[in-house]
Amino acid sequence: MTHPMAIIFVLLTFLAICQAQDATTLPAPTVCIIGSGIGGSSVAHFLRKYSPNSSPSIKIQMLERNGLVGGRMATVNVAGDTFEAGASILHPKNFHALNYSKLLNLEFKEKDSSSGCSSLGIWDGKIFVFKTVKIGCDVPLFDKLVSLVNSLLLFIRYGFSLLKMDSFVEGTVNRFLKYYEEPASRPIFETPDEMLKWAGLYNLTTRTLHDELVDFRLSPLLIKELVTVITRINYGQSVYISGLAGTVSLAGSGGGLWSIKGGNWKMAAGLINQSDVALHLHEEIESIADLGDFYELNSTKGNSYACEVAVVATPLDESNIQFIPQISVSKRKIQHTHTTFVRGLLNPAYFGLSAVMEIPELVGTVEDPDLPFSSISVLKKYDEKDATYKIFSRQPVSDTLLDSIFSVRKETIRIDWPAYPHYHAPEVFTPFLLDDRHLYYVNAFENAASTMETSAVAAENVARLILSRYFGTKSMHSSKFSSGSHREESHVDL
Ligand SMILES: Cc1cc2nc3c(=O)[nH]c(=O)nc-3n(C[C@H](O)[C@H](O)[C@H](O)COP(=O)(O)OP(=O)(O)OC[C@H]3O[C@@H](n4cnc5c(N)ncnc54)[C@H](O)[C@@H]3O)c2cc1C
């Protein structure tokens, strides 16, 4: 008679073999990614980078409703010159973007914001309450001097608060650097809340930038003027945005800023090219149905895509995608930013000045509902009477208004961007995982801050989450979104 222990041993061995076979014989999944911006392209890149060699090769389908990749990284052509129309600047510590540009051999373009030549003026609708100088910009020897004079002018107006602001921003940037730690020692997150808590950034999303800076003892004048100018330029919003989005916005106004020569969209294009992706342009997804073993994505053209894993890499807030069954996401308003490009010449009289050269190259504004724009900046100067300008505003700028701001207007291009979330505090986050299976949402992280780099950071986490849930063990941070008492008010079903 066979010994019972031997039978148990044989059974256990059989089970172990079956399990091992399960892990390796899982069918190669098709991952469908909706959106070809930096978020979608980064998911594709990191899926390839982190896919275990032992697992079958993933098939990646990318669906993009536009005829071009890049999403909010897009360029515009004004009178023969190309300018960034959406996301324009990168921070020196945006390490994913830096790695992408090295990997893809893209050329850097530095934006020297420390130069005294990019003069700044703060306009309150009647006068410039503060102005830096711009004399001597064409003479390299004077550059440094002008820069020093401007630092002094800023110091005289805002005092030591400027240094406090720098240290506040640096502390936050340093915490963000945790997201670049080795994957082996870095958890995978199912929710942005967990991801932010792990880096020590979550609390900044629960209070306004204003309150954070007041507690940090920044002077009210600095908050009312310079900080306001920056949040209005970078997010089209006031200092009452959440502390984290506000701090990210302040970080985007320091030195060492850069961009990709020819357009930041080249990062998305390069990543997609390198990641063996089947890209479908002009393909707008209108529904995602969970059919049990796979998701069926249907496009407005009538095409269907079957995928084991579906990734939404675009904000769902103003999208028409229908989910079957319904999913629940946190309510979020989108801030529209109207970007108007004008080739021509500003009218000094509009600003109560007598000569164009007295108008600063960057005109920022304070918070006042009557002000029709957030900022006007010179993008390129052709000669003393001809330049290309970029205007940011919350509402469209009318021709009548443009005719009073400009004395010459040769070309005007208008873009209405559904730009970024309308930030508030406390922020309520949607999880990265939208159901109990394999439906993911990269832009859940956009309530933290909206930048090219934060999209890449969220995408890297989502790629790891997909791989760990599909091929491996579940993430240790499986803090599922729980329906709290405020769920009704703070969530919407799609
Ligand atoms: C005016 C402006 C200025 C900015 N400035 C900066 C800056 O200086 N620095 C910075 O880092 N960030 C900046 N940002 C923010 C930055 O652009 C975004 O955070 C980032 O590009 C978001 O990338 P994403 O891939 O997550 O989304 P997106 O770039 O929006 O990509 C989503 C893609 O999905 C596609 N899509 C949407 N719905 C569907 C559908 N149903 N079917 C198929 N495809 C679909 C869209 O066409 C789009 O291509 C700026 C944004 C704007 C608007």
TrEMBL record:
Read off the Pfam families from this record.
NAD_binding_8, Prenylcys_lyase
Which InterPro entries does its entry note?
FAD/NAD-bd_sf, Prenylcys_lyase, Prenylcysteine_Oxase1
Q: What domain of life does the UniProt record list for this protein's source?
A: Eukaryota
Q: In this protein, which residues make up the domain named Prenylcysteine lyase?
A: 145-473
Signal peptide start and end residues: 1-20
Q: Name one GO molecular function term.
A: prenylcysteine oxidase activity
Q: Reply yes or no: does the keyword Phosphoprotein apply.
A: no
Cofactor entry: FAD
- Assigned keywords, A-Z: FAD, Flavoprotein, Glycoprotein, Oxidoreductase, Signal
Q: Which GO terms describe its biological process?
A: prenylated protein catabolic process; prenylcysteine catabolic process
Which PANTHER family does the record associate with it? FARNESYLCYSTEINE LYASE, PRENYLCYSTEINE LYASE DOMAIN-CONTAINING PROTEIN
The record's family statement is: Belongs to the prenylcysteine oxidase family.
Protein name listed in UniProt: Prenylcysteine lyase domain-containing protein
Native organism: Acacia crassicarpa
